[in-house]
UniProtKB/TrEMBL annotation:
This is Biotin--[acetyl-CoA-carboxylase] ligase. Its EC number is 6.3.4.15. One of its GO terms (molecular function) is biotin--[biotin carboxyl-carrier protein] ligase activity. PROSITE patterns: BPL_LPL_CATALYTIC. InterPro entries: Biotin_CoA_COase_ligase, BPL_LPL_catalytic. Pfam families: BPL_LplA_LipB. The lineage of its organism: Bacteria, Pseudomonadati, Bacteroidota, Bacteroidia, Bacteroidales. Residues 2-178 form the BPL/LPL catalytic domain. Keywords: Ligase.
C-alpha cells in the first residue's frame, strides 16, 4: 500500500480534518500530520494535550479495510502494536493498555482514537487519530499520568523519525490482517498487554474491585476474573484501570 503524507501547521483535529475530505482509494493510505492541534480528541469526551511542535499528532486514513465488521477491534490492535514497535526502538518497559493506549510502566505515552464508517455491515473507511508524546517535558492538563519519550530517555528525538517507524510497522501489521493472520496479531497484542499477569484494582459502575485479565475477546471486550472467581466482561469505557501511585 502506498502512503501519501501531508503536513499542516495547525488544525482543530487531524481526524476531523481528514473526515472532511474524500476517502482515499483502497490502494493508498493517506496521512495528515499537524504541528499542533487546537482541539485534539481522545476517547469519548477526553482531549489530547500536545505542546506546539513537540509531539507527533497525526491521523491515517484507509478505505475498505479488509476486516469483517465483527472483528473491527483488530484494527485497534494493529495501530497500538505499530506504535509499540516504533517506541520500543528507544526504550523497554512499554506495554499496551486495553484498548489501544501505549504505556511506559504506569504512565501513558500514546493514545489512539479510531473512527469508522460502516455501510451494509462493511467497514468502508477507518481513520486512526494518533498522538505520541515525544519531546514535551511537562504537562499541564488534568490527564492523570502522561509521560513523554524525552522523560524516559533524557534526549530529544526527531518526530519525523518516529512517524516513519510507526507507518512502516502499521503497514506490516495491516498486511497480516489482510492475509488473515488474526491469531498471530492477537497473540502479539496479548504478549505486550499491560497488566497481563497479576491481580490489580479496577473500578466499574458498582465500585472498586480487584481482578486479573483473563481474556480480550475478538469483539474487543475485556474479561476480568475478580478475587471471588467471578468473570466480569466490559466494553470500552465500562471499567477503569485504577493506577497504583
Amino acid at each position: 500500500m502506498k502512503i501519501h503524507i501531508d503536513y499542516i501547521d495547525q488544525t482543530e483535529s487531524t481526524n476531523s480534518y481528514l473526515a472532511k475530505q474524500s476517502a482515499p482509494p483502497s490502494s493508498l493510505m493517506k496521512v495528515i500530520v499537524a504541528r499542533s492541534q487546537s482541539a485534539g480528541r481522545g476517547q469519548g469526551t477526553n482531549s489530547w494535550e500536545s505542546e506546539d511542535g513537540k509531539n507527533l499528532t497525526f491521523s491515517l486514513d484507509i478505505t475498505r479495510p479488509q476486516v469483517p465488521l465483527h472483528l473491527n477491534f483488530y484494527l485497534s490492535m494493529i495501530s497500538a502494536l505499530a506504535i509499540h514497535d516504533a517506541l520500543s526502538r528507544y526504550s523497554k518497559d512499554l506495554t499496551l493498555k486495553w484498548p489501544n493506549d501505549v504505556y511506559y510502566k504506569d504512565k501513558k505515552i500514546s493514545g489512539t482514537l479510531i473512527e469508522t464508517s460502516v455501510n451494509s455491515q462493511i467497514i468502508t473507511r477507518c481513520i486512526f487519530g494518533i498522538g505520541i508524546n515525544v519531546n514535551q517535558k511537562e504537562f499541564v492538563s488534568d490527564a492523570p499520568n502522561p509521560i513523554s519519550l524525552i522523560n524516559i530517555i533524557n534526549c530529544e528525538t526527531k518526530v519525523s523519525e518516529i512517524l516513519s517507524k510507526t507507518l512502516k510497522a502499521f503497514q506490516k501489521y495491516y498486511d497480516q490482517l489482510r492475509l488473515g493472520y488474526y491469531k498471530s496479531v492477537k497473540l502479539q497484542y496479548m504478549n505486550v498487554l499491560y497488566r497481563s499477569k497479576g491481580v490489580f484494582p479496577y473500578r466499574d459502575k458498582d465500585g472498586l474491585f480487584e481482578a486479573e485479565i483473563v481474556e480480550i475477546k475478538d469483539n474487543g471486550h475485556l474479561c476480568l476474573k475478580d478475587t471471588e472467581g467471578r468473570i466480569r466482561e466490559y466494553e470500552q469505557k465500562e471499567v477503569q484501570f485504577v493506577l497504583l501511585q
